[in-house]
Amino acid sequence: MSNIHPACKPVSGDFHLLNVQIKEHVAKSFTALLTCNIKVPYMKAVNLEGPPRAARREAIKDGMELGRKFLAEGEAGARSVCLKLKKTKWLPQQLVNVDEKDLYTNHPLPGFRDSQELFAKEEELVPPGEGWIRHSPTMLVHAHSPVYFVQKGEKAGKYCRQGARPGEWVDIDPPHAPQEYDIKVRAASASCVRRGTKFDRAVTLNDVTKIARLSLKLALSFVDRPATGFALFQGLRTSEAAQWCAENFHKKLLPRLAEKIHVYKTEELQEVLEATLKELDTEVMKSAFPFSGCSALLALLLGNRFVVAGVGDCRVLLLEGEGKGAGSTRLLDCEGRLDDEEEQLRFWQAGGMVVDGLLHHQQADKLDDAKRILCAPNVFDVLLAPDDELDVKQVRGAYRKLALKVHPDKQKDKDSVEMKAYQYAFARLEESKERLEGMIEEDLEACKQMRRVLHAEVHTRSGAASLLGVDWTPASDSILEEIEQDAAKAAKELKKKFAKLQVPKEYSEVLLTN
């Protein structure tokens, strides 16, 4: 027994229990399972599982290799073989003399001993794919779906979801069995440098399943192959927005793909891309560079299906044929015009304006009354100037003056987009008047404090210190600690005052978190 690893040698005539099993999965795949109970230098159980195989003979061959390596080099050697087996493809001639009986009764390697008594318990079924975690003693759950798999009992091997009522379970179809298509994909990009700066960003996701697993810890085991993605972002004024989208779009796309383990319809894949673009747009508008702007194009290939979605100024063409007979089919055409009605309302409300065909931050001297109301950050600025007195009389007087200017019925020779802006502006003017009057009547003093908070530079130390009435010029650490305590106390008092008010939704969260 000199060729046996010391951890596998028997002590006082007792054999360590070493067992190799072949487990059949629900998806008709097979894996080799090696189990060993080691007695010295202390009790320890080793469990290793080989890769899924389509044929049982291949799994048996894996088990033989795992057993040999374990006896020769112990646990570390067996684990290294386990990793190599994932890349190994057995040839037919290597499987000729493979016999499953050799794993148990007449195993050719010394030190093997059958330990089937260790597996007398009811065998638990294992669902295909990754991402399953324990939900209960008899069920697993795919956390991102969520789909449940029954391992034991009358419904063993079944998939289900939770019903509308507590404790109700609804049977569903098994997950999608991914298909492998013989399709080769290549991607390349080229851009024209403007003003000495590269505004475009191109990103290729060679294998979305691998990227999801490594970067986001997500399991995408149920999508067809090849599974690849491509994204192109073109900056408009600067490259900041395009750069941010290129670095973060996969964090929005891949979690959505992981939400379903059944087959995706093409329309559903289209919705996934569109939802990803909408979320990117929302994040960019909240970021530090909303006026950078970019056009975006996403493409996703899953198996034999190719879907695209875009926003802004982008186009996708399918080129067919070669030479003189070549043609093209337009798959997507997004013009991304800034004079579009929905786009104009969106950037007006975000504080933007178009000058010479480009989107800029709004300039007060170039805004009419309707656009000023639309881009006002809060109800105070809709009706009052910074120096105006805060009382009901002042609010009502400002409302009457502005209502005459922005009422849609008073506008003439306005196109549809401009008229829409006046309709939205008048609606916001009325809503702001009602809210502001209610807040003033509720607690005028707290309302003044709220206006002061909204106009303060709370994101700077000096501005926050001025708001809270503390001196931010500490001479030592002890004084700094006292100032922080005073600031926390002042902030707590402000929150108590604001909690009593009917705070408008558009900035209630800002007040309660600053």
How would you describe the overall organization of this protein?
- There is one protein chain.
- The protein is of the alpha+beta class and 514 residues long.
- The chain has five domains: 6-119, no CATH class; 132-172, no CATH class; 200-336, PPM-type phosphatase domain (Phosphatase 2c, domain 1); 340-431, Orthogonal Bundle (Helix Hairpins), CATH 1.10.287; 443-514, no CATH class.
- Helices cover 37% and strands 19% of the residues.
- It is built from 13 helices and 16 strands.
- Strands 4-5-6-7-8 form a five-stranded antiparallel sheet, with no helix packed on it.
- A hairpin with a 2-residue loop joins strand 11 and strand 12.
- Helix 6 (369-375) packs across helix 9 (416-442).
- It is elongated, with a radius of gyration of 33 Å.
- It starts with 16 loop residues before the first strand and ends with a helix.
- Mean pLDDT is 77; it is low at 1-15, 105-122 and 504-514.
- Residues 378-441 form the J domain.
CATH architecture of the largest domain: 4-Layer Sandwich
- CATH-defined superfamily of the largest domain: PPM-type phosphatase domain
Low-confidence parts: 1-15, 105-122, 504-514
Question: Strand order across the biggest sheet?
Answer: 4-5-6-7-8
SS element count, helices: 13
Order of helices and strands: EEEHEEEEEEHEHHEEEEHEEHHHHHHHH
Q: What is the mean pLDDT?
A: 77
Structural class: alpha+beta
Biggest beta sheet summary: 5 strands, antiparallel
CATH domain topology of the largest domain? Phosphatase 2c, domain 1
Q: How many DSSP E strands? A: 16
Integer count of domains:
5
Question: End-to-end span in angstroms?
Answer: 73 Å
So what's the overall shape? elongated
How much of the residues is beta strand, in percent? 15-25%
